[in-house]
Structures are given as C-alpha cells and as structure tokens.
Amino acid sequence: MTDLNKRSLLKVAALTAVAAAALVGCGKKEEAATAPAAAAAPAKAEPLKIAFAYVGPVGDGGWTFAHDNGRKAIEKEFGDKVVTSFVEKVPESADAERVIRDMAAQGNKLIFGTTFGYMEPMLKVAAANQGVKFEHATGFKTVENMRTYDSRTYEGAYMAGVIAGKMSKSGTLGVVGSVPIPEVIRNINSFTLGAQSVNPKVKTKVVWVNEWFSPPKETEAATALINGGADVLFQNTDSSAVLQTAEKMNKRAFGWDSDMTSYGPKAHLGSAVINWGPYYVKAVRDALEGKWTTGQTWWGVKEGAIDMVSIAADVPDETKARIAEIKKGLSDGSFAIWKGPIAGQDGKEVLAKDAVADDKFLSGINFYVRGVEGKVPGGK
Questions:
Q1: How many domains does the chain fold into?
Q2: What's the start-to-end Cα distance of the chain, in Å?
Q3: Is 291 inside any structural domain?
Q4: Dihedral over Cα of 262, 157, 301, 285: its sign
Q5: Residues 309 and 195 in one domain
Q6: C-alpha 288: how far from chain center
Q7: Are 113 and 201 in the same domain?
Q8: Contacts of 362 (CB under 8 A, 6+ apart)
Q9: Lowest CB count within 10 Å: 62, 136, 142, 263, which one?
Q10: CA–CA dist 189, 179 (Å, integer)
C-alpha cells in the first residue's frame, strides 16, 4: 500500500470518528432539549391579615393590654403565616363601625372587636363583608361570619373576694364599676360571694363610672369608696387607677385583667388576670385550616384563660391554699361558684339549695346578691 493510500484511509477514519462524535453530541443536545423542565416551586401562600379594634390604649395595664398580649401570642405561634395590626382607643360609637369597616377594606380577613359595645357595628360590617371572619368579645349575637368569645372573669372576681374577705379589717369592701351590663354585675356579685365565703358579714359598696377606661373618674370613685369606709377595693374598669389610689391612701386593692403589681406594690393583694392567648391562637388556627365556624365560646380557669396571680406575701397561707383549691375545683368541675342557696339583695332566693347556675342564668344577671349595697343602675 502506498503512502498516499495510507493517508487516504487515515483521513477517512478520522472523518468517520468526527462524524460519530458529532452525532453523539447532537443526540445529547436533543435529549437536553426534550428533557422535561424541573417543576417550579409552589408560590408561597399570602399571610393571613388580622386586625384588632381596642377600646382603650394598649398601655392601659389592664383589659386592652391583655388583649394585645394575646395578639403577640398569635405572632409568636404563627410567624410569617400571619400579619397583625391594631387600632387603639376606638370608642363604642359610630366610630367603631367606621374603623372596623376600614379594616375589612384593607384586606384583613379576620377581625377581632374587643369590647361589648362593638356588637352592633360589627354585625353591620359583617353583613357587608361575607368573605371576612369577625370575632366579637363579650357579646351574645352571632351570624354566619361572626362569632363571640368571652372569659369567665367572674371566676377571678370570686377568688379576689376570698382574699378580700380575709384581709378586710372594716368588713366593708368597695367596687368601682364600669358599665352596668350583666358581665360587670356578675363580677361584683361573685366578688361579694367570695368574700362572704370567709366572712358572712361582709358588705360591698359600689360606685359606677359608666366608662371602661377613665383614670380620673376611677380615681374619684375609689377615693369616695375609701372615704365611705371601704378598706379593700376591687374594680371592673380597665386602668390601674383604683390600685394606685389605694396605694396613696394606705388601703388594699387588686389588679384586674393583667398583673398590676408594679402600679401599687404595697396595696396589691393579687391580680385577677385574663390570658387571651389560648383562644386567639385557636381562632387563628381555625381560620388558617379552614375550620372556622360561627358560635360562642366562654373560657375560664379550666381552659387557662383566667387566673389569680402575684398574691401578696401577707395573705395567710390558708387563704392561698383555698385559692389553689378553688382553681383545682374550677378546672376539674368539682367546684361551682354560683351554687345555691343564693339570695338576692332583697333576701329572696335566686338560686335554690344545691342548684348550680347554668350559662343562661349567668349571662342574664341584672340584680345584686345580698350584701351588696345600693341599686343596680336601670334596675327595678
């Protein structure tokens, strides 16, 4: 074979190899071109927008402060799955409807109204915003997209009464009342029943301020009660003014809704607190999981919503032990605060011996029990 032929054969072989390589390369390119693209990551769900309407300032140290702690519990529990906001100092008037309607317009899908007086405004806004879920605190009216929730504050009031009955030297207790609705009247009565359980001769005086949050009026009322002989004060108002007044006048008093120890450490006997966190977390989880339905919820010691905390060091050990027994009994159902016989202010029996009040009875209380002085505003 000549050198020319050898070179020709080598050239052909080389070209064949290049062609084969080209075909293989084309095949790989074709495979890459026709291979299915990787699935795109699913779009992240938008966070649930949640709004709160507060009747007082978040710094009131009591009612609104407790609700805002509940809002913070939601953020801690659900992180970036939620976005929360609030508007404080929303009066129980036409302004409430305007604020709540604006919350819905801003895209909030879960709205909490945290005071009794928001009930009718919320019903109006709910009717016009069927895609929004509404939660109303302390009310009694519901519709398909609005439900109610409340805490059994009367349980905390009763425990405060047990302490007050033991610690009072004059036998006269004073209560600063906010608005005369069944919730507040029930608390005044429960406080008195608790005190009477350790001192049957106790009497309770009441001064109404007709507002939830008004430190000047609360101070004036507390002062009047002390001047009238009360040496232990209790309140169903939203600020720490009553406790602070007791501190200044060398009397004793309680914190309400939140732990108020720091506002009057010498006067403070204990704080009947509300923990809204458990319910708020449940409500948000219901909404996120598509399980939200209308209804009514009323939680107390049993569900971790009510407690008596920071009991003063000088409260006798046997009284502290009694408070522990009451908590246990309320938790396991072995103890009932409203169990007969219970008499009204006029001495007539309102609950027969061994009868236990149901929630319907408790929700409609519009009378004072025996031992409470004065007249229920608007009552007969």
A1: 2
A2: 133
A3: yes
A4: negative
A5: yes
A6: 19
A7: no
A8: 154, 182, 186, 338
A9: 142
A10: 14
